[in-house]
């Protein structure tokens, strides 16, 4: 099977790792009189559509439910559910990590193309994260079928609730590549390498961190009064040896909702 015009003068592959490639649209040419002005300024500011293209050669990939746009070749899809108990476990994982409860797994030989997004796509080799990597809620897009997915709980559950953070995160381990959706491009992310150190972050600016790190939510000061005087409340604390990928800006629901509305806007 030959696929013609997937990449052209306007759509180019900008990154690849393993069987994953990132296709970026330099401009959105599918416009009309109602959308042309917005699309023009978006292209000038680097707001572009991106798609993940997965090339399978007898291997498999797990993707977020509803993320597939089209496939070609001898591709079979399964739910990966092995029984009622496994389904209940997956539903729990999905509920606490803001991910889909059941992520379909695509196997065979061919190409799987995911839905376009205005977010940036990060490709990470899970094996380079030691015992694994933990990601912020809602970032998972796809991964190799060889990557293990587990849910881990924060040690300090009460402070996580008070700090407005989730109590659970998705942990990825083993060998393979994972594709993550981020509001910040890879070249803007700050990597902090810890060697028996401590990192405190005010807000959920961490994109991913080593599974070996102890992660808690604590008071910024030694006491509630001290936290109040310093102007800070609760902070995310990472301790131990490993690394943290951190965004220079905190995500806001307004930005994400605006991007989602643009992507979903119908052409009239």
Q: Could you tell me the number of beta strands?
A: 15
What's the overall geometry? globular
CATH topology: Double-stranded beta-helix
CATH class: Alpha Beta
Low-confidence stretches: 83-87, 224-231, 253-268
* String of helices and strands: EEHEEHEEEEEHEEEEEHEH
- Helical stretch tally: 5
User: Can you summarize the main beta sheet?
Assistant: 8 strands, antiparallel
The average pLDDT score comes to: 82
What gap, in angstroms, lies between the N and C termini? 34 Å
CATH architecture: 4-Layer Sandwich
Structural class: alpha+beta
Q: Give the number of domains.
A: 1
Radius of gyration of CA atoms, rounded to a whole number: 20 Å
Look at the structure and name the CATH superfamily.
Mitochondrial biogenesis AIM24
Q: What's the helical proportion of residues?
A: 10-25%
Percent range for β-strand residues: 35-45%
């Amino acid at each position: 099977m030959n696929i013609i015009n997937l990449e052209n003068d306007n759509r180019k592959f900008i990154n690849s790792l393993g069987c994953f490639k990132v296709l970026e649209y330099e401009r959105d040419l599918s416009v009309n009189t109602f959308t042309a002005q917005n699309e023009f300024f978006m292209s000038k500011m680097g707001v572009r559509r991106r798609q993940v293209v997965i090339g399978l050669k007898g291997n498999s990939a797990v993707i977020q439910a509803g993320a597939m746009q089209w496939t070609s070749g001898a591709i079979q899809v399964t739910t990966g559910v092995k029984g009622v108990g496994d389904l209940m476990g997956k539903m729990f994982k999905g509920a606490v990590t803001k991910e889909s409860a059941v992520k379909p797994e695509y196997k065979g030989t061919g190409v799987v193309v995911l839905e376009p997004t205005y977010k940036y796509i990060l490709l990470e080799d899970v094996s380079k994260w030691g015992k694994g990597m933990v990601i912020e809620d809602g970032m998972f897009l796809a991964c190799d079928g060889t990557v293990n997915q587990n849910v881990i709980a924060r040690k300090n559950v009460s402070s996580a609730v008070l700090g407005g953070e989730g109590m659970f995160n998705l942990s990825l381990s083993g060998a393979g590549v994972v594709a993550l959706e981020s509001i910040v491009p890879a070249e803007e992310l700050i990597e902090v390498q810890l060697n028996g150190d401590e990192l405190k972050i005010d807000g959920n600016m961490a994109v991913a961190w080593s599974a070996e790190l102890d992660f808690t939510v604590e008071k910024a000061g030694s006491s509630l009064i001290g936290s109040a005087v310093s102007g800070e409340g609760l902070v995310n604390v990472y301790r131990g040896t490993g690394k943290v990928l951190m965004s220079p800006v905190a995500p806001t629901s307004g930005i994400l909702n605006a991007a989602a509305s643009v992507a979903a806007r119908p052409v009239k």
